[in-house]
Write a structure and sequence with these properties.
14 helices, 5-stranded antiparallel sheet, alpha+beta, TATA-Binding Protein, two-stranded antiparallel sheet, 293 residues
């Protein structure tokens, strides 16, 4: 075991992260949560690494439990992945500046002070969840995800690690269709695996959101909704607001009305517009008061 300090950009409250992750549906059964810590398993270069994250002054302590010793570059990549997972490096100041003139939103900010947006552990996992959960009951999608983790990823202390693209490289079309219950979704999953196996992870971290969205929607079977899921929940892009249509619009309206009153959809759009490139984080804070899915 090795221990490492992961610094967080202030304000940061690890308790807020734990609260959110305790109700994050796609991650159910993949974490154990304590009062001040969480444990999970991670795949890295073909091995499963157990991780314990603990509250620590100025950030989080990461304890790593690899199957085999990690090299320096491997450790650095894993620590960066864990930092991204908790959004530790996120700069909240532009969002807080926008919110300073929004009096109805002030109680939300007070309740969620220091809340950085957690994400899926990798954008690849977010993309796969978009495929698995498409027109599928959440409980079934979660079961498929866990089975893929156990069969192609690994397990540490009973916690499954979601596979990396290389782990799923042996998954064939027939098996993918059987596991997902759909030939079309099976093909989309395999196309997603191939695309993420070839893309540069550093490009995903640094490229403009519009470029990443174009790349994602170029994957066969991946639509605008899944692309937004990856950008927001996989990469933490606060400049992206989840698409205002159908159930998502109704869901955000339900979250917004206790804060802003009986506003219409048009009025909701107007409030979001005032947040500019921070609208995604504003919507995330609104929705995180209740069910964090």
């Amino acid at each position: 075991m090795t221990a490492h300090h992961l610094p967080a950009r202030a304000p940061f409250d690890f308790g807020q992260s734990l609260r959110f992750l305790g109700g994050f549906t796609p991650g159910a059964g993949e974490l154990t949560l304590g009062r001040h810590e969480l444990c999970r398993a991670v795949r890295l270069d073909g091995q499963t690494v157990g991780v314990t994250l603990k509250a620590e002054r100025g950030g989080v302590q990461a304890e790593l439990h690899p199957e085999r010793p990690l090299s320096g570059p491997q450790t650095a990549r894993l620590l960066a992945r864990l930092s991204d997972f908790l959004g530790l490096g996120d700069d909240l100041s532009p969002f807080l500046a926008r919110a300073s003139g929004d009096a109805p939103f002030a109680p939300v900010l007070e309740r969620l002070h220091g809340f950085h947006q957690p994400r899926f552990l990798t954008p690849f996992e977010a993309a796969c969840w978009g495929v698995l959960s498409q027109r599928t009951p959440v409980a079934r999608a979660r079961g498929i995800k866990r089975a893929l983790s156990e069969d192609f990823g690994g397990v540490w202390n009973g916690l499954p690690a979601f596979p990396e693209p290389a782990d799923l490289g042996t998954l064939g079309q027939e098996e993918a269709a059987r596991r997902l219950g759909s030939e079309r979704r099976g093909k989309t999953l395999l196309a997603t695996v191939r695309a993420f196996a070839q893309v540069d992870p550093d490009w995903l971290r640094s490229a403009p959101s519009a470029d990443i969205e174009t790349w994602l929607t170029g994957i066969s079977g991946v639509g605008a909704w899944s692309a937004q899921l990856v950008l927001i929940r996989g990469l933490g892009r606060s400049d992206r607001l989840e698409r205002f249509d159908g159930p998502l619009e109704a869901e955000l309206l339900r979250a917004a009305r206790p804060v802003y009153g009986e506003l219409t959809a048009e009025q909701l759009h107007a409030v979001a517009a005032r947040y500019g490139d921070q609208a995604g984080l504003w919507a995330f804070y609104l929705r995180s008061q209740g069910d964090p899915r």
